[in-house]
């Protein structure tokens, strides 16, 4: 068995003693639980739509080794190389997102995917974490010197990303990207005038989305008036939590996965609630909270401003995605097609989250100085 001492100067040895191993362990727990839950929830869905029972299971377990490799590989990078990687990824994702608008298949009125044989890619999933790092770089450069208009460049890139997302359209992801970007801008020292202005723009934008996109209006209306109908998945999810109680009905014994179309993706938390109960649900929430809070606690000692902004953006994105998914399952907010990180089935989502977590682990590693080393 290989062991690493603090005197080990190899790449892997230095990584082992500088990476946040508690966060790495927490991510491992999520990945393990995700594998179990996809195994429990997806066969019923596959059977219902005419696929082989373990179709989704096989695909998920194909993605898992890739995701783990991505997390570990990216976590070896220095902040400088994280930044370079994010810039390249961002540029590639912008091109691919434009391609989805031109040649991507239309699914339920939206163009968000590219088809490569049997693999479906959603470029915007990778656009989210890469944009957070690029925006952080621009904000940090503005603070260093006024020679580079980092804030203006960040605003322009934000407008580009939002424009592409709304053209698909994907209003939910637009709100997530906007919230993360605003949080980073606020941490970068956004003047109070701009804070008020952006909040006003956000309110107007939300109202505009309600007025311009019928599917957004429908989801909001169904959330505000559940008695109006059209809440089949939400109602079944709530029944699942009630049936599961504190301890659940037992692994594999739940019934909600046989009737929920998205039991293996958007509503997998309801499957957890029915089969494992409220206690396990609270444990899942606790793991997400631990990753986010521990990440921010490590940033309190960070001297590199770019690292602070980039990691804060990635943590906000990770936590917000978990909150939205769980909130939708518990009928605390309108429905939004967003996966539960590392637990829901999904290739693009799984790999994009692996990129996010790899960059976060790389940025949060203990380093000797404040520079990009």
Automatic annotation (TrEMBL):
EC class (word): transferase
Membrane topology: Multi-pass membrane protein
Listed transmembrane segments: 22-41, 61-81, 87-104, 148-165, 171-187, 192-213, 267-293, 305-330, 342-363
Highest taxon above the source species: Bacteria
GO annotation, biological process: cell division
Cellular compartment(s): Cell membrane
Keyword Cell membrane: yes
Keywords: Cell cycle, Cell division, Cell membrane, Cell shape, Cell wall biogenesis/degradation, Glycosyltransferase, Membrane, Peptidoglycan synthesis, Transferase, Transmembrane, Transmembrane helix
Similarity comment: family membership: Belongs to the SEDS family. FtsW subfamily.
NCBIfam families on file: ftsW (TIGR02614)
PANTHER family for this protein: CELL CYCLE PROTEIN, PEPTIDOGLYCAN GLYCOSYLTRANSFERASE FTSW-RELATED
Protein name: Probable peptidoglycan glycosyltransferase FtsW
Source organism of this protein record: Sneathiella chinensis
């Amino acid at each position: 068995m290989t062991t690493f001492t603090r005197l080990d100067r190899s790449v892997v040895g230095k990584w082992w003693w500088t990476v946040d191993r508690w966060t790495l362990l927490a991510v491992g727990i999520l990945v393990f639980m995700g594998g179990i839950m996809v195994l429990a929830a997806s066969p019923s869905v596959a059977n219902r739509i005419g696929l082989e029972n373990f179709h989704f299971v096989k695909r998920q377990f194909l993605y898992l080794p890739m995701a783990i490799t991505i997390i570990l590989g990216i976590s070896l990078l220095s902040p400088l190389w994280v930044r370079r990687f994010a810039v390249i990824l961002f540029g590639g994702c912008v091109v691919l997102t434009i391609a989805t608008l031109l040649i991507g298949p239309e699914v339920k009125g939206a163009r968000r995917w590219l088809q490569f044989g049997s693999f479906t890619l959603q470029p915007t999933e990778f656009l989210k974490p890469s944009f957070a790092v690029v925006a952080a770089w621009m904000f940090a450069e503005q603070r260093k010197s006024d020679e580079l208009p980092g804030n203006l460049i960040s605003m322009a890139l934000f407008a580009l990303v939002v424009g592409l997302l709304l053209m698909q359209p994907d209003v939910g992801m637009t709100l997530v990207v906007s919230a993360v970007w605003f949080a980073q801008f606020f941490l970068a020292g956004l003047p109070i005038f701009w804070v008020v202005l952006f909040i006003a723009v956000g309110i107007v934008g939300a109202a505009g989305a309600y007025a311009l996109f019928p599917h957004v209006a429908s989801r909001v209306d169904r959330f505000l008036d559940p008695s109006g109908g059209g809440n089949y998945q939400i109602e079944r999810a709530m029944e699942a939590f009630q049936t599961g109680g504190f301890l659940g009905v037992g692994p594999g014994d739940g019934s909600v996965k046989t009737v929920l179309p998205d039991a293996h993706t958007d509503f997998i938390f309801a499957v957890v609630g029915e089969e494992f109960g409220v206690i396990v649900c609270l444990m899942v929430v606790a793991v997400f909270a631990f990753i986010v809070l521990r990440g921010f606690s490590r940033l309190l000692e960070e001297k590199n401003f770019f690292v602070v902004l980039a990691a804060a953006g990635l943590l906000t994105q990770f936590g917000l995605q978990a909150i939205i998914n769980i909130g939708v399952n518990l009928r605390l907010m309108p429905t939004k097609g967003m996966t539960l990180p590392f637990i829901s089935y999904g290739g693009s989502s799984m790999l994009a989250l692996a990129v996010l977590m790899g960059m976060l682990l790389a940025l949060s590693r203990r380093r000797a100085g404040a520079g990009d080393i």
